[in-house]
């Protein structure tokens, strides 16, 4: 019989591993940097032993810092990135550091055989908006695209009941939070029967896959290379738990990766960026110290693609859309109003999505909320 998730957690002693990891997260900065150095070197050595190359998957400040950290300890892993997705100031630093820029997946080919690549806009039009978080968006996407195959998962998202594979548990974390069930649960028949509403737009987590993850995976395969990632468990999200269970270096059957900063807190990352003189992309402003000693970046705290809605509901204003409005009002106007069309051919954009999830936003100069 297939092992259920509870038995698996017990077999791999997950609770103890998570507790050990959490202790390391509380250690001082110097310990963590030494720890990251040892783990990064171990990973490189194990890759050499297995005949694998390694690279750094580069995005914003965290992974730029990782690239320079590895160079500082003489691990010369090339940097790769789907750079065009990032803010121009990040792209500039990527070029300066010699990061190789990858293209997104090919969507189609023209008559002359030239490739048509997926773009942020085309993914949104085809699949939906990346909003809230990757996990929540993936759940909503399942609810909005019901099939026989995903019936058990949809039931778990609506009710929290997992079925046999999940150990027949009730009230699990598979259940979407009540707040979002109220707004999105009605896309599913069971949810609609419970009185939940359905959003008037599509939601999807596919954007990252088509634009970032898959192109990087394909590059890695072609180059027989495995990645160093700038992930930190303290940032939460989808991978926090697996980082805590699997630790910095993971050599699994289908995944091999190193996350030397796994035990870092934001403060450690910013301190290391200062110590290594990391060029900070303009979008973050500069790294400064508050009176109480904590470090912060004067502009964006985190970045991602300018039009990404992941995390927007928990971001303080001015949020990333506000900042984009100041930087590029024309682009902002387009994102808010003209991303895709509804079934009547009416154009709409992030404005409608933000209104629906209760995130306030402003019209560009001279405009009025439509
Ligand atoms: S970060 Fe957001 S916008 Fe960027 S590729 Fe991922 S889902 Fe798309």
Draw up the topology in text:
Blueprint: H1 5-11, H2 14-25, H3 29-50, E1 53-57, H4 61-72, E2 79-81, H5 88-96, E3 100-101, E4 106-109, E5 115-117, H6 120-127, E6 131-132, H7 134-144, H8 151-159, H9 178-184, H10 189-193, H11 206-222, E7 225-228, H12 240-246, E8 249-251, E9 256-258, H13 266-275, E10 287-289, E11 295-297, E12 309-310, H14 320-327, H15 329-337, E13 340-341, E14 347-348, H16 350-357
Parallel strand pairs: 1-2, 1-7, 2-3, 6-12
Antiparallel strand pairs: 4-5, 8-9, 10-11, 13-14
The chain binds iron/sulfur cluster.
Radius of gyration: 22 Å
CATH topology of the largest domain: Rossmann fold
Name the bound molecules.
iron/sulfur cluster
CATH architecture of the largest domain: 3-Layer(aba) Sandwich
Describe the structure concisely.
A four-stranded parallel sheet has the order 3-2-1-7, with helices on both faces. Strands 4-5 form a two-stranded antiparallel sheet. It has a two-stranded parallel sheet with strand order 6-12. It has helices at residues 5-11, 14-25, 29-50, 61-72, 88-96, 120-127, 134-144, 151-159, 178-184, 189-193, 206-222, 240-246, 266-275, 320-327, 329-337, 350-357, and strands spanning 53-57, 79-81, 100-101, 106-109, 115-117, 131-132, 225-228, 249-251, 256-258, 287-289, 295-297, 309-310, 340-341, 347-348. The chain is of the alpha/beta class and 370 residues long.
């Amino acid at each position: 019989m297939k092992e259920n998730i509870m038995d698996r957690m017990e077999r791999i002693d997950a609770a103890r591993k998570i507790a050990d990891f959490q202790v390391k997260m509380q250690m001082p900065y110097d310990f963590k940097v030494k720890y990251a150095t040892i783990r990064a070197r171990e990973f490189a050595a194990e890759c050499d032993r297995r005949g694998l190359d390694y690279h750094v998957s580069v995005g914003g400040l965290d992974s730029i810092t990782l690239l320079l950290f590895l160079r500082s300890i003489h691990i010369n892993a090339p940097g790769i990135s789907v750079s065009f997705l990032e803010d121009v100031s990040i792209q500039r630093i990527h070029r300066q550091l010699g990061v190789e820029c990858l293209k997104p997946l090919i969507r189609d080919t023209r008559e002359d055989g030239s490739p048509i690549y997926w773009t942020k806009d085309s993914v949104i039009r085809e699949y939906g908006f990346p909003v809230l978080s990757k996990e929540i968006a993936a759940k909503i996407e399942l609810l909005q695209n019901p099939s026989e195959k995903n019936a058990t998962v949809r039931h778990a998202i609506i009710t929290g009941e997992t079925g046999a594979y999940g150990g027949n548990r009730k009230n699990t974390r598979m259940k979407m939070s009540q707040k979002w069930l109220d707004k999105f649960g009605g896309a599913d028949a069971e949810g609609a029967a419970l009185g939940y509403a359905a959003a008037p737009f599509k939601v999807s987590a596919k954007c990252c896959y088509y634009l970032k993850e898959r192109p990087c995976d394909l590059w890695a395969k072609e180059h027989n290379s495995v990645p160093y990632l700038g992930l930190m468990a303290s940032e939460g999200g989808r991978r926090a738990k697996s980082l805590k269970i699997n630790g910095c270096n993971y050599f699994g059957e289908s995944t091999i990766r190193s996350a030397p900063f796994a035990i870092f807190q934001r403060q450690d990352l910013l301190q290391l960026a200062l110590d290594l003189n990391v060029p900070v992309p303009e979008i973050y402003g500069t790294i400064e110290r508050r009176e109480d000693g904590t470090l912060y970046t004067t502009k964006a705290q985190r970045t991602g693609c300018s039009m990404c809605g992941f995390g927007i509901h928990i971001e303080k204003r001015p949020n990333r859309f506000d900042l984009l409005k100041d930087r590029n009002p024309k682009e902002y106007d387009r994102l808010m109003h003209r991303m895709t069309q509804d079934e009547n051919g009416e154009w709409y954009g992030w404005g409608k999505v933000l209104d629906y999830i209760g995130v306030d936003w402003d019209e560009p100069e001279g405009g009025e909320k439509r």
